[in-house]
Specification:
The chain has about 475 residues and is mainly β. The chain has three domains: about 160 residues, Cupredoxins -  blue copper proteins (Immunoglobulin-like); about 160 residues, Immunoglobulin-like (Sandwich), CATH 2.60.40; about 130 residues, Immunoglobulin-like. Helices cover about 5% and strands about 35% of the residues. It contains three helices and 29 strands. β24 and β25 form a beta hairpin. The termini are far apart.
Length: about 475
Amino acid sequence: MNKRLRRALFSIAAVSLLGLAGCQSPNTDTNGAGNKTNNMTSSPVVQGHHATVNLQDSQFQPVSIHVTVGTTVTWKNDDSMAHTVTSGADRTADGKFDSGELDPGKSFSYTFTKAGTYPYFCAYHGDMNGTVIVTATGSSASSASGNSASGNSMNMGMNMSGSNDTSDTNSAAGSSETTSDKVAPLGTGTSGEPEGKDDIRLLPYKLVNGVKVFHLTAEPVWWQVKPGEKVEAWAYNGSVPGPEIKVDEGDKVKIIVDNKLPEGTTVHWHGLDVPFAQDGTGGISQPDIKPGHTWTYTFTVNAPAGTYMYHSHPMTDMLKQENMGLWGPFIVEPKGTGWRQVHPGYQDEYTLIVNDSPQFGYTINGLSYPATPVMPAKVGDKVLVHLINIGSMDHPMHLHGFHFQVINQDGYPIKDPLTLDTIDTSPGSTYDLSFVANQPGKWLFHCHIADHTTDGSQMSGMITMFDVTK
């Protein structure tokens, strides 16, 4: 068994990207082949005018075939997951043919009317490549390149080409210079991501045929925990925490992850009940995403409205990657409404992530007091707080001036909400807190363990505040 096949057998990440537009019909003529052939271990010569390639175990079988002009090749998906059959060299779609999303049990056919070499690939799986070599009747196998079509209509605004996915992928300033021994400039979040009053950025998406398509880039940056304190971080889209992914119940989502780290990584959707192949557990549900490669996660949000998170979960160095900053919030809202509509009267909504990473110290939203966010509210406002503990310690979070109700835990509503002024958050847990800001003042919200809120003599670390004004 060759290395490519072993890797393919190991990959069980199922995704369901919408098909690229512009697919030619099976009898459409083509202007020649791509500009590069793949090295294949076997290239059977097919006799007759029909040939079949099976998609099985995340592999094209056979990987390479020889056919004559006029042959119709049928790709049959015998796998347990969706694939694509997308023409193009170097995993870049060229517009000659594309199956779109080919679900298990489905087939796609294309008739080759001109000689040439036609590389193709699955847009969802980086190790899944194949070649059709077409020769004139009676001639020997050829790898003539011919003229390559541009296929501009194929991309629908984004280039789904595995590790070569460069269009529309978010990256922080200077990330193109990132190497294993050099980090990008100070991370401030990717351009175009709006920043909330809680200092967390909102991840934008594109709606493509009813699917919300997001882009995450894992990359090294410098991160300023507070003025004068700059540390190296590994961040999603240049910010710690990573940008907030906000969706509605029942949404279909596609999240394309670009790995610009010097080592492999994955993304786990913590608290969301997703299919096994989308779980993002390195070495278990998928191989680690190699440096310079992309991976696409696709699932339907079946979780109830509440607070969840995402974080790295590679086969190796999970602790290191989380300590470096690879985590972010995932908020599910009621379908078609939003918190203000389902809970009438909410004027303010904030997300707070507590962390005790040795890389950053004790932080809220990646920042240490006095750099932590100051969240405004008006007297009488009803405030909703999405609270997440991504650290490795318990943190009893205490609110000055008000009592709050704990209305959700780990994404699920609490039948009889608790009324507290301090909630002991445990590692990996999430909560939704609700309170009415009924008196003015600058009210602290902080961990009640003194070591986590001081640097010896001064307040520091895990402290933020609500600034309530009339």
